[in-house]
Amino acid sequence: MVLAVVTARRLEPARRAAVASVLAEAFEHDPMQAWLFPNAQRRMQRLRRFYERDLAVRLEGCTTTCLLGETAVACWQAPGESGTLPPRSALQLAPCFWSVVAHHPLAGMRLLAAVLRQRPDEPHWYLSHLAVRPGDQGRGLGRTLLQWGIERADKEGVGTYLETANPDNLPFYRSAGYSQVGLVRSGDAPNVWTLWRGPSEQGSPPPRRRVADDGAGNVGASPDGGDQRGGGVE
Ligand SMILES: CC(C)(COP(=O)(O)OP(=O)(O)OC[C@H]1O[C@@H](n2cnc3c(N)ncnc32)[C@H](O)[C@@H]1OP(=O)(O)O)[C@@H](O)C(=O)NCCC(=O)NCCS
């Protein structure tokens, strides 16, 4: 257990590099990043570059919470802030996006589209990134940052939503009240679990999604069912 004060503030340009560095270190061995950036020697450098750009364009102005200096970071998007990008931002993000899918152009784009389709329609706080530097993991920092967003969403009477490609994270989120609402399976990409926590209640109904089906019957909604029997979005 740590005594930590969460500082919630909008991300300032001067702190971007430091935050990108926390993200790159924390996600270096994440299954999705390892798939997107297979060259282990260059992955860290590429991840830093990617996150800097992502923070500058897609997450510009989102609510970022940090604690203990640059050790842990959560990027929360308030209801209405996530999901779409203004055309100018989409253009600015294009080179960075391309660097991400370069090794799997078609599979990468299919995966992204499938993940975006799972986003709930209803208002929610979206946890875009949560990361703790490897040397500081397991001390309660991740839980503290997660709880910050949960409490905020509870006060507003809305849920929170996130995706993870690392099954090791599922117990962490489940113990914070999240339920699995979907599983995206796309080609040889790592699985992506989608998780929802309703406002201040246990077992609230799963959210409605923008698209309930991808047209081919491949929808992965199985509230906390553990095993998904053919329910992935391929
Ligand atoms: C996942 C992550 C944010 C958790 O943060 P953390 O500070 O290490 O976790 P905490 O110390 O707050 O853990 C809180 C609880 O979850 C448990 N927990 C944390 N990570 C876990 C894991 N991978 N598997 C199982 N339990 C886990 C802890 O044991 C602890 O349990 P307790 O409260 O009963 O003691 C952090 O490990 C991380 O940055 N991982 C790499 C990046 C990542 O995967 N981010 C999440 C993307 S969705």
Concise summary:
With 234 residues, the chain is an alpha+beta fold. The protein has 7 helices and 7 strands, in the order βαααββααβαβαββ.
Question: Overall 3D geometry?
Answer: globular
The radius of gyration is 17 Å
Bound molecules: coenzyme A
Oligomer: single chain
The CATH architecture can be named as 3-Layer(aba) Sandwich
As a percent range, the share of strand residues is: 15-25%
CATH topology: Aminopeptidase
Number of domains: 1
Q: Specify the helix fraction band.
A: 25-40%
Number of strands: 7
* Number of helical elements: 7
The average pLDDT is 81
Largest sheet descriptor: 7 strands, mixed
Which structural category do the helix and sheet elements fall into? alpha+beta
- Within CATH, the superfamily carries the name Gcn5-related N-acetyltransferase (GNAT)
Distance between the termini: 40 Å
CATH class: Alpha Beta
Give the strand order of the largest sheet, numbering strands 1, 2, ... along the chain.
Answer: 1-2-3-4-5-7-6
Order of secondary-structure elements: EHHHEEHHEHEHEE
